[in-house]
């Protein structure tokens, strides 16, 4: 009798707490201003049929007119758009919103990696990996980046004077080969027979397109339903051919290498991120190592390839800026395209090139939106309280083109806005290509170094042009941001050396 009463008491407390929690959730949600775009049931219905270009457009439009905080519903899910740099700062640095919504984990199976893993894995892995992505540790890859960039520059020579071609496929072969080599797995992707190479590259492209569509088709969220679909079969096949297919070989290779060398020092103080992952010092289990390797492969491949392709495309569209980049390169490193571009200090002196890359990352941020989920209530800078279980969207693409923060010419390609004097007038949380705070991109220094070296190699040898017009570019969302027309450039031998 007594036990029954206690159980009933607990049950009543549970129900009261549940009711209170959801009552408060809807109450706090009701106080947040509505976004102009109704993304509720009609939005969901439209999203069911949308292709990746439409998906980008729909999300993009849902941010129109939003300058502070605004809410929108995707079916039963509350999304709060965080669009002012002040609120971005709160969110990016808050312990209450380090985690990401469940649908971000759809690109699995990488559930125990830094990018998509739950917060427990994230803490553990980030702590292990962070020291290996600092400047001093990354400097060891400079020669590798230069050697691989020179292979691309040589391979692309067959396109000389051939008119427009999509540079992205060359870039993505380079970025995949480079990250695999950085993991000490010697493989030649750039010179592989094109069918094998294309399959690897397309694998990731197909998979990311499908993942994006799944996020917007609610009924496909439950795993047991998704697994019955054709999309799942295609995605699984695509992933099997993608960069993921190298995972086991990469891990076995490093283990054999360390065993052969009886490398106890490496066990105790691993020198690279790959050695750290397999070292017994950090005690990662087999599935954690596999997921982290996969995570690094996908995080490093498309992102850097798209950003380098976008930079070249924008320079092809803006010849005056291209001339300035070349002037600076000649002044700082000379005019011989065959020399190694491996002097770290000289690379650091290429200020204009860095401004160009930043401007490309501003206009075409490869990750156009990031998501967070809220663990406990947080307060915006205007005093709105965002309830736990809300999903936050940070529309990087929109923030980085907002005229309030970037001026009337926000949509124009003008690298000079990153000059010291100019950029200090802009709130630093309005420029977020790698985001900020504890979840800032792990590989941002790696990416910047590779991009600089690659662009030096490429631009020193080739003059780039394009028939595409900046104003006509259309975007699509494949997890990352892509250009529907492709990154079409043409190349000529550079004469003015
Ligand atoms: C231009 C190239 C790149 C861009 C624009 C980029 C951008 C981003 C962005 C926006 C995020 C999400 C951060 C957040 O949720 O707040 C991210 C996360 C991440 N990136 Fe990158 N990334 C690039 C290259 C790389 C490279 C080369 C690597 C690895 C070598 C890498 C590894 C990661 C990892 C592991 C995460 C997860 C970090 C975490 O959640 O703690 N990225 N990146």
TrEMBL record:
This is Cytochrome P450. It is found in: Endoplasmic reticulum membrane; Microsome membrane. The lineage of its organism: Eukaryota, Metazoa, Ecdysozoa, Arthropoda, Hexapoda. May be involved in the metabolism of insect hormones and in the breakdown of synthetic insecticides. One of its GO terms (molecular function) is iron ion binding. Heme binds at residue 441. It holds the Pfam family p450. It comes from the Eukaryota. Its cofactor is heme. Belongs to the cytochrome P450 family. It is a peripheral membrane protein.
């Amino acid at each position: 009798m007594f036990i029954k009463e206690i159980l009933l008491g607990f049950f009543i407390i549970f129900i009261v707490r549940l009711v209170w929690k959801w009552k408060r959730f809807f109450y706090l949600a009701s106080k947040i201003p509505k976004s102009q775009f109704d993304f509720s049931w009609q939005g969901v219905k439209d999203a069911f049929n949308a292709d990746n270009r439409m998906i980008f457009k729909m999300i993009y439009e849902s941010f129109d007119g939003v300058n502070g905080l605004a809410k929108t519903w995707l079916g039963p899910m509350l999304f709060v758009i965080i669009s002012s740099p002040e609120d971005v700062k709160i969110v990016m640095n808050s312990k209450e919103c380090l985690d990401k919504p469940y649908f971000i984990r759809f690109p699995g199976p990488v559930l125990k990696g830094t990018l998509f893993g739950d917060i427990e894995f994230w803490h553990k892995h980030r702590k292990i990996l962070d020291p290996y992505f600092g400047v001093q540790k990354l400097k060891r890859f400079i020669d590798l980046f230069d050697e691989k960039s020179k292979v691309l520059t040589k391979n692309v020579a067959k396109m000389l004077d051939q008119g427009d071609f999509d540079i992205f496929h060359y870039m993505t072969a380079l970025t995949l080969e480079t990250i695999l080599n950085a993991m000490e797995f010697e493989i030649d992707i750039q010179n592989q027979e094109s069918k094998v190479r294309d399959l690897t590259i397309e694998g990731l492209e197909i998979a990311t397109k499908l993942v994006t569509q799944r996020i917007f088709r609610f009924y496909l969220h439950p795993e047991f339903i998704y697994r019955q679909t054709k999309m799942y079969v295609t995605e699984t096949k695509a992933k099997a051919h993608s960069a993921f297919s190298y995972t086991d070989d990469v891990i076995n290779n490093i283990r054999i290498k360390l065993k052969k060398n009886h490398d106890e020092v490496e066990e105790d103080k691993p020198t690279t991120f790959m050695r750290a992952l397999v070292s017994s010092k950090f005690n990662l289990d087999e599935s954690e190592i596999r997921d982290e390797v996969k995570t690094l492969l996908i995080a490093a491949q498309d992102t850097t390839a798209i950003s380098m392709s976008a930079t070249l495309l924008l320079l092809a569209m803006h010849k005056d800026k291209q001339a300035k980049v070349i002037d600076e390169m000649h002044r700082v490193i000379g005019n011989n395209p065959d020399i190694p571009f491996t002097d770290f200090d000289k690379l650091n002196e290429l200020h204009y090139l860095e401004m160009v890359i930043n401007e490309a990352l501003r206009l075409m941020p490869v990750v156009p939106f990031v998501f967070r989920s809220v663990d406990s209530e947080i307060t915006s800078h205007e005093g709105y309280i965002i309830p736990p279980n809300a999903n936050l969207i940070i529309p990087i693409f929109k923030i980085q083109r907002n005229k309030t923060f970037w001026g009337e010419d926000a949509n124009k390609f003008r690298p000079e806005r990153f000059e010291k004097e100019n950029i200090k007038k802009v709130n630093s949380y309005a420029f977020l290509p790698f985001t900020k705070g504890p979840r800032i991109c792990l590989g941002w220094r790696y990416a910047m170094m590779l991009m600089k070296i690659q662009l030096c190699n490429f631009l020193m040898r080739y003059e780039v042009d394009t028939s595409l017009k900046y104003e006509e570019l259309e975007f699509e969302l494949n997890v990352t941001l892509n250009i529907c027309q492709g990154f079409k450039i043409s190349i000529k031998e550079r004469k003015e050396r």
